[in-house]
Design goal:
There is one protein chain. The protein is α/β, with parallel strands linked by helices. Helices cover about 30% and strands about 20% of the residues.
Length: about 220
């Protein structure tokens, strides 16, 4: 476990409140904490609703509550995905690696639970572009940050012609993430896009995430 994880993550300090109507019962309190990636001193509110199981995470380091949803796929198969909706740190806590570690903790917890639930992916709408990433106040660079952690999807058709010629044959965002030059191209040309971290062992998501963790010296 690296220094940031030791300083900012302690499951014993996280409180979980379960709504009376919650009837599913296949998650322990510890699994709820791990699956949300909640940092220390968080309060997790678990309830059910139209979108599935809602996890609302409150913490004084967040600018707004963090939300996760466990949703059953509509494919007809008994499988779930975890939807990320909202992760905004107060400015004084940003750029410390806390937010990315919330997500990485969530991914590994989802993988551990995958055979039992089963969870097949973690999903996010990654917002921003090169212009919004440069904003002095509240820069929006989710389109880039989520991709560097292994969240993958098709490169939007309108983006591909803007890439350097050597990358115009790339189909997936992960095709760009495995090299420094490719990441720079996505940072320059990328835009808001729905991305998915596929939990299957052979997915490109894991290769990109392991590269990211090694470069950032992140250890769970």
């Amino acid at each position: 476990m690296d220094k940031v994880y030791r300083e900012w993550f302690n499951a014993e300090t996280v409180t979980v409140h379960i709504a009376p109507e919650y009837q599913v019962g296949f998650l322990t309190r510890r699994e709820v904490v791990e699956l949300t990636g909640a940092p220390k001193n968080s309060t997790v509110f678990l309830s059910t609703g139209g979108r599935g199981i809602e996890f609302r995470v409150a913490n004084s380091i967040f600018a707004e509550d963090m939300f996760r949803y466990l949703v059953q796929n509509q494919s007809g198969e008994y499988e779930f995905y975890l939807l990320n909706a909202g992760l905004v740190l107060k400015s004084e806590f940003s750029q410390r690696g806390i937010g990315t570690r919330c997500v990485i903790k969530e991914i590994f917890a989802a993988k551990r639970l995958a055979s039992g639930l089963p969870i097949v992916s973690v999903e996010v709408s990654a917002v921003g572009n090169h212009a919004s990433a440069q904003l002095a106040d509240d820069p929006m660079r989710g389109y880039y940050v989520w991709a560097t952690m292994g969240f993958d999807g098709k490169i939007p058709e309108q983006v591909r012609p803007r890439l350097a010629e050597k990358f115009q044959g790339c189909v997936l965002v992960s095709d760009l993430m495995l090299s420094f030059e490719g990441r720079q191209e996505w940072f320059r040309c990328g835009e808001s896009v729905d991305l998915s971290f596929r939990l299957a062992d052979a997915s490109a998501s894991w290769r990109v995430l392991k590269q990211y963790m090694l470069a950032k010296e992140i250890e769970l």
